[in-house]
Amino acid sequence: MSKRLILLLLLFFSGVGICLPEATAAEGSEYTTKGMITFTPNEEITDPLNPSDPLQPIQPVDPIDPNGPNPGTGGALSIDYASSLDFGAQKITTQDKIYLAKAQKYQTTTSEEKQGPNYIQVSDKRGSQAGWRLQVKQAEQFKTEEGESLSGAQVTFKNGRIATIAESVPPTASTSVVIQPNNMLKDVLVAEKNTGAGTFLLAWGDEQTAAESIELFVPGSATKLAKVYTTTFTWCLTDAPPNA
């Protein structure tokens, strides 16, 4: 190899050795950006959900009103649904009797007919965690269209259990509620401050006990006419817990 070629090769590799350190010596740079999302209270009506699977919306069937159940109350704090109760057709007797409400019938999103526990559904979409309180009352006794009363009749809600997918601490549920027809409010669900955000269902019973968790006691001494008796339950949702 000639001396000239050797000299050129030495100069070439010397140049490479000089350039590489300069390229890697530059300091790294950092740049930060931000992300943001803002939530606002949601006033839209929340659809009824399945108390056995609260991820699934359903269409409840009202056993009394052929036009279907009343829509939810709407608003950021709302009652979305509550079951009406059908205690069936019963034979007149002079003995004390307990009659059981039929299970809640409903249709799935694929129009499949099923049944499960009777329930009430409440949604808190205010975004404040201020707490809330759900109560129920019965103003009058079971009566016929002519106003004849079913004396001494009393309804008991049993086996209450909460269903939800919310991460918020759930409200406190009254697992058993005895209702008197005296227009007095009874606590059903109570969400203290910093609890109860999201949608919560209080079901009476489960798939196995759905048809035996709401009782109507009728004393044998009550006069029973061969007529239909009805009553009304009023569910009251207030925007603050009792200890607020």
Automatic annotation (TrEMBL):
Keywords assigned by UniProt, alphabetized: Signal
Signal peptide range in chain numbering: 1-25
Domain WxL: 27-241
Domain of life: Bacteria
Alphabetized Pfam families for the sequence: WxL
InterPro entries named among the record's database cross-references: WxL_dom (IPR027994)
Name by which UniProt lists this protein: WxL domain-containing protein
Organism: Enterococcus pseudoavium
